[in-house]
C-alpha cells in the first residue's frame, strides 16, 4: 500500500517506505540507463529516479508540465548527489510505477521566474504563469494575510457583513461600470466603487464594528496602482477617535508582517499631517524610505530679479527647491530634460536648476541668482557637486505635486530607494474638500 503524500511531507521517517505523489514535471534529465524527474506541487519540489526498463519507456513520453502520479520507495541520495538548495534534497523517490494523469502541449514560455514572456502571453496562459514560484508565493501570501485579518477582527468583535454589488450610481472618484436591467427597461445598476454608503447604513443600524473583503470596481485606465477590479479590506467603527483607528491598524499590520514574512514592524507608525506631507514630500502618500525633502525658498528669493520668481511671489505663489547632495555629475542634459517634462505636465512655471562648482553657482539659472548666491549656499549648506532644482507656481498644491513626482523620479534614477525597507506612516488632517480647477 502506497502512502499518498505531498512533496513537502517527504522526510527521514519515510525512508524505504512506499509513497505516492501527484505532481507536475518541472525538469527532465536523461542519463542513459536512468532518468531523473524533478517534480513539484503547491508545497515543494522533489526528485524521482527512474531506472527500470518498462518505466523508462513511459518516462520517454513525458514532457515538461505533464501532471503525473509517482509511486515508489523513498530512498536517501548518495552524499555527492545531495541538493542543499531543496528541502527534500537529501532523498529521492525510486519509481515503481508512473501514470500520466494529464498531458501538456508545447509550452508558450518556460515556467521560470526569469522568463522573457510578454505580459499578454502570461495573462493568456494564466494557469501556467501561476505555477511560477514568485507568483504562486504571492497568491499563498494573500490567502494567509486574509485569514489573519479575519481572525484578528473577529476576535475584536467585528462583524463580517456583505454589502450589495448592484447599486445606485453615485458621484465618486472614478467612473462607474454600468449594468443594464433586464426587468426594468431603460434603467441601470452600477457596480460599487466602494461600500461607503452601505457601511454607513450598517453603522446607523447599530452594528458598531463592521468589515468585509470588498470587491470594488472603477472604470479607469490601468496603472501600477490602478485596476478596474480589485479587493480591499473595508471596515467601519462607531464612537471612536482617530487614535483608536491608528492602534487597530498598527496592531493588525504588525501581526500580518510578523506571521507572513517574519518582519517586525514598529508598534507605532510615524504620523504626519497632510499639509506637512505635501510641503516636505510633495505627496499625500509620501515615500519616506529616502530623505530628499522639498524646501520652500520663497522668503530667500523675495528680492529676486528672475521674472518667473518675481511674478510668482507677487501673486503670493510658492517656490520650492529640491537639493540633491553630491550628485550633480549624475545629471546629464537629457535627464534634466526628462525632469522638466514632469514640471510641464503639472503646469508649473517650469523646472530650473543650478549646480555648485568651485563654491559658487554654475549653469542653469546661476546668472539670475548672483545677489542671493552666497546667502543660499550658506543657508542650505551647499557644497561642490550639489545640484538644486527649482519650480514655482501661483498654486501651492501644484508646486508640491510637481516636485513630489520629480523627487520620486530622481530617487528611482539614482537608486536611492531601499526596496527591502518598510516605512509606514499615517497621513492625517486631510482637507474635507478640494477645489475643482474647472469651476472654482
Task: Give a written overview of the molecule.
This protein has 440 residues and is α+β, with helices and mostly antiparallel strands. The protein folds into three domains: 3-102, Beta Barrel (OB fold (Dihydrolipoamide Acetyltransferase, E2P)); 136-261, BirA Bifunctional Protein, domain 2 (2-Layer Sandwich), CATH 3.30.930.10; 274-428, Gyrase A, domain 2 (2-Layer Sandwich). The chain has helices at 53-59, 119-124, 126-129, 133-155, 196-204, 242-261, 274-281, 307-314, 333-345, 373-379, 396-414, and strands at 3-4, 18-31, 34-40, 45-50, 67-76, 91-102, 159-160, 178-180, 188-190, 209-217, 229-237, 270-273, 294-296, 318-324, 351-357, 360-362, 387-393, 425-428. Strands 2-3-4-6-5 form a five-stranded mixed beta barrel. Strands 13-14-17-15-16 form a five-stranded antiparallel sheet, sandwiched between helices. It has a three-stranded mixed sheet with strand order 7-10-11. A hairpin with a 4-residue loop joins strand 3 (34-40) and strand 4. Helix 4 crosses helix 6 (242-261) and helix 7 (274-281) crosses helix 11. It is extended. The model has no long low-confidence stretch (mean pLDDT 94). Keywords: Aminoacyl-tRNA synthetase, ATP-binding, Ligase, Nucleotide-binding, Protein biosynthesis. InterPro entries: Aa-tRNA-synt_II (IPR004364), aa-tRNA-synth_II (IPR006195), aa-tRNA-synth_II/BPL/LPL (IPR045864), Asp-tRNA-ligase_1 (IPR004524), Asp-tRNA-ligase_1_N (IPR047089), Asp/Asn-tRNA-synth_IIb (IPR002312), GAD-like_sf (IPR004115), GAD_dom (IPR029351). Its EC number is 6.1.1.12.
